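User: I'm writing a tutorial on reading structure tokens. Could you give me a worked example: one chain, its sequence, then its tokens, then a sentence or two explaining what the tokens reveal?
Assistant: Sure. Here is the example chain.
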Amino acid sequence: MLAWRNLVHDKVRLAVTITGIVFAVVLIVVELGLFLGFATTTSGLIDHAGADIWITAPNVPYIEQGVAFTERKQAIVLATPGVASASKFIARATQWKRPTDGQQVAIQIVGVDLETKLGGPWNIVAGSVADLQQRDAIFVDEFYKRRLGIDRLGETLEIRGHRARVVGFTRGIRTFTTSPYVFTSFKHAQNYAGLREDQTLYMLVKAKPGVDIEQLRQTLAARLSDVNVRTNDEFSSMTRRYWMFTTGAGVAVLLAAVLGLVVGVVIVAQTIYATTVDHIREYGTLKAMGATNRYLYTIIIQQAVISAVIGYVLGMIVSAVVVNGSSRGGANILLPGWMVATMLGITLAMCISAAVVSVRKVTRLDPAIVFKG
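And here are its predicted structure tokens:
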């Protein structure tokens, strides 16, 4: 194939082209994966809570910004037709005292109603949710062991001056901030978070099977005062939007991904253009022999496609290594199946778009160039 021979004619230039594509693919995958990881992490508590509706104090923009309200509203919620259960829930920042050196570490205490288990820990690798019924019991994620100064079950420590004991570990429950989630029972969480006995930060509602969630939300909103009633999806979206766009973090990550795409297009365009110029007399010969512009376009596009496929395969291999390494590091990078497929399309589009520059060069080519010295 002429396109392949043109590419391998200068192996150094081919290597540069492939390297540029690999760099662009890895950068785009990592940045988009970070974006997805951040978005998933910011709303993780909500998405895994198992609730259909969240009741919050007025104007709470995201889950870490909860405001206390009276738990007496639970009786009204439970009396509402269509409600299967209503659980009190706490998610609030507090201080953890490391047992190793006494250093204070910021955490997010998560208080769970153990009767319904809505909002409880998931991906449990040691212990069980039932263990939270024990006195002063807490769950933490094994990723944060070193940060929290613990390494085994049964260790005791202090949270906001109150005793706590590790009875279980989870795996993969990350936070968007540097403050780890620490799960405990609702009553213990009230002490750890500094709330009164009649206060809660959230109320999680589970609807009965077959009940229209939006209709139930409207009914609860009409019955309750001084609170906001939102569906689980609505509150999850609000939390993600706040962290990813209001704070600017998500925009920065997306801009980095776009930068990777631009860098890839520039590198590939320069390389394919240089390859076209090197073979300009050969293209002129083909034109003099009657080759159509369409035929020449096909050769150049084929070069771009070959480069794209090679660069994509190598880029995805490197990306998979990076993503796998992130599971043990601080960043949470996701690489779902749909992104793997989408990246092939993006890589092909990037390389074919870059080849357009070379196509224009050949279009204006004068076949007489073959006879010029």
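What the tokens reveal: The chain has two domains: 2-41+248-371, 58-226. The CA atoms of residues 192 and 295 lie 73 Å apart.
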